[in-house]
Recover the amino acids of this structure.
């Protein structure tokens, strides 16, 4: 695909620096890209410089964490100004909260005999690229592997960091309504991210979409990477029912066989994209 509206750099939990991400997107034939790091816009200035050099249309983006119905969900915001005061204030609050969370993860691991986890996770993060943000659970996972506490990334989450484990520290995210209001005041276009990532019943998914529409949402992410086709079908039905536009993206974090920039299942033709794909060049003579 030549448009990708969901990806991550080292500014959050990706493994490529923003400029490297742009270069890889260009190599993969992506012409329009939204960098949507978790709760930060730190990577966007570097990404813009690289995108202008390579002729990629870069859309300002962010993936914001918030609470709805007691669950953490993610909202994608697009097209805001880099100096928007609402975005800057919100990301500063989230930045502080993420550092407190990382410190608590390290404290809990230390209580189980795993020392220096925060410093180790920061070293993993620094090896990937410069970032002012707190190390995330994938960085802690790599530290655990490196120090021999677990065999691999999957075991790190299964034993220490996954849902319900000691390192699964809940953060006091802003409310869904507060996040939607922040993005609305920033004049962002707003998409509800990867609805199937949440362990919701069909009724609860539909109620979330209804609340999203009621608070000014614009689009539903109907395709997230290579998710099952039946999920895309269900999400497409919801987009039609609620008259929402749609977004799609790879949700790229690192180069893998099943995860690549511009690689995701097709969006049904009858749905209206939030951003139109780049126009084909005029080859008429």
């Amino acid at each position: 695909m030549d448009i990708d509206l969901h990806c991550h750099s080292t500014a959050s939990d990706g493994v490529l620096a923003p400029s490297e991400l742009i270069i890889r997107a260009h190599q993969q034939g992506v012409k329009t890209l939204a960098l949507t790091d978790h709760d930060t816009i730190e990577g966007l200035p570097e990404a813009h410089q690289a995108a202008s050099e390579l002729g990629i249309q870069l859309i300002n983006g962010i993936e914001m964490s918030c609470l709805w119905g007691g669950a953490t969900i993610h909202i994608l915001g697009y097209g805001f100004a880099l100096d928007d005061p609402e975005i800057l204030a919100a990301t500063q609050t989230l930045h502080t909260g993420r550092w407190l969370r990382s410190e608590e993860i390290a404290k809990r691991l230390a209580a189980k005999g795993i020392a220096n986890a925060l410093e180790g996770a920061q070293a993993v993060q620094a090896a990937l690229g410069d970032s002012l943000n707190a190390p995330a659970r994938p960085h802690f996972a790599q530290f655990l592997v490196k120090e021999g506490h677990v065999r691999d990334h999957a075991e790190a989450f299964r034993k220490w960091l996954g849902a319900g484990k000691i390192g699964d520290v809940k953060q006091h995210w802003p409310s869904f309504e507060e996040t939607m209001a922040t993005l609305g005041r920033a004049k962002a276009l707003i998409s509800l991210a990867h609805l199937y990532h949440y362990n919701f019943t069909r009724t609860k998914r539909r109620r979330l979409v209804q609340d999203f529409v009621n608070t000014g949402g614009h689009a539903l992410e109907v395709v997230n990477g290579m998710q099952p086709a039946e999920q895309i079908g269900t999400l497409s039905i919801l987009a039609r029912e609620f008259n929402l536009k749609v977004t799609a993206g790879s949700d790229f974090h690192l180069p893998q066989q099943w995860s690549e920039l511009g690689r995701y299942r097709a969006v049904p033709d009858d749905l209206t994209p939030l951003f139109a794909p780049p126009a084909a060049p005029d080859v008429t003579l």
User: Anything to note?
Assistant: The first strand starts at residue 3 and ends at 4. The beta strands are 3-4, 32-35, 57-68, 71-78, 189-192, 219-224, 245-249. The chain has a mean pLDDT of 93.
